[in-house]
Design a protein that fits this description.
Length: about 400
């Protein structure tokens, strides 16, 4: 079979797919509509499954060196009482690594550094994707036309490629929540590596980084499209009675660094992640709520699984069928679990369900909590071998 691929989207999933495909001997071009691949974003937690995928891509060591392990912390109530403690050491013993916290921009930069500059086509939007015969597919980006054997659609939750190929699908819907987040300008004195605090219809959390700075996020039950003139002032008001270090994190943030996004998801599962010679990947295939911290990890799993299939199956058709069969059930199950976690966590607003949830969490043994985490974290990637380029 041929070995030319075009990846639409230069985010984490798209870059990871390009690295994987090159490692199995494919020629790759990444098309990204942004004029510059800026290193932007807040923070991200990488669980064992995502780290194992990065290891198979050859960048795991660099990512770990830029990350901070999450050994301490857990989930609290607004007055500071603990609902559940994190046992990072037990998780590390079970799967070989703790969860790692890293700035999203750093992860993006490390992935980009693993690719030659000439495979990145920036400032171009894939406007037309069409099948051209049984053995190929074409992407038209303005005056640029790219022909390939496979297209990887990694263009996010609002994927235009998905919309072109599956026009009857309802697309992403609003989850009922919005997230505001930022990275502090300077180091903040923190007693834990990672925390979540659940109130009524609101969550505040932080991820500590190796340099002492931290990412914080606030998830609120909000209608779509709501924005604040003074986001930091609004958050100081909403969380004024919540425990420290919430105030310290907000006070250490540049107002211009606050990001505000509606949380959208693909609530209606896709019937397939493959349409002809096009493979949907990451948020384009299974955009999920952030309540399990698995969005990026699932995209990394997608990337390695797709590359392994295209590197070993005799035909593109067989490889893409294998990719769909392996990835769709798992990623859609994780998406359902993330939605349920949000409904039982941050989105709960009535006092009685909140009290029942808190009691259940306090009574859950730590071993049981670790077993629940392992359902999503304990994943073994397929081997990419070493026949391609790094």
């Amino acid at each position: 079979m041929g070995k030319r691929a075009v990846v639409v989207g230069g985010g984490i999933g798209g870059l990871a797919a390009a690295i994987g495909l090159r490692r199995v001997g494919w020629e790759v071009m990444v098309v990204e509509r942004a004029v510059e691949l800026d290193d932007v974003g807040a923070g991200i937690s990488l669980a064992a499954n995502g780290l194992r995928a990065l290891d198979e891509l050859g960048v795991g060591e660099a990512v770990r060196a830029a990350s901070r392990g999450q050994y301490t912390g857990g989930t609290r109530t607004p007055d500071g009482r603990w609902l559940a403690r994190m046992d990072g050491a037990a998780l590390e013993k079970a799967v070989g690594t703790p969860i790692m916290g890293i700035p999203r921009a750093t992860l993006h930069r490390l992935l980009r550094a693993a690719l030659p500059v000439e495979v990145l086509l920036v400032g171009q939007e894939a406007r037309v994707v069409r099948q051209c015969g049984p053995e190929g597919v074409r992407v038209e980006c303005g005056d640029t036309v790219l022909e390939a054997d496979v297209i990887v659609a990694a263009d996010g939750v609002g994927s235009k490629v998905r919309g072109l190929l599956l026009p009857a699908h309802p697309g992403p819907v609003h989850s009922g929540s919005a997230v505001l987040r930022a990275i502090t300008e300077q180091a903040v004195e923190l007693r834990t590596d990672f925390e979540l605090t659940w109130g009524r219809g609101a969550e505040f959390g932080h991820i500590a980084f190796p340099d002492g700075r931290a990412e914080w996020h606030a998830v609120l039950n909000l209608p779509t499209g709501v924005r604040f003139d003074d986001p930091l002032g609004e958050l100081r008001r909403r969380f004024s009675t919540w425990h420290e270090p919430i105030r310290a994190l907000l006070d250490s943030t540049n107002p211009g660094d606050v990001l505000h996004h509606d949380v959208n998801e693909l609530r209606t599962p896709l019937p397939s992640y493959v349409i002809g010679s096009v493979a949907l990947l990451g948020d384009a295939a299974h955009a999920m709520t952030p309540n399990l911290g698995q969005g990026a990890c699932q995209a990394l799993e997608d990337a390695v699984t797709l590359a392994a299939a295209l590197g070993s199956e005799p035909t593109v058709e067989a490889a893409l069928a294998r990719y769909d069969a392996e990835r769709r059930p798992r990623s859609q199950a994780v998406a359902r679990a993330a939605r349920q976690a949000g409904r039982m966590g941050q989105q709960l607003a009535h006092p009685l369900p909140v009290a029942l949830r808190n009691t259940a969490m306090r009574l859950t043994p730590s071993r049981a909590a670790v077993r629940m985490i392992l359902r999503h974290h304990d994943w073994t990637p397929p081997s990419l071998g070493s026949k391609g380029v790094g």
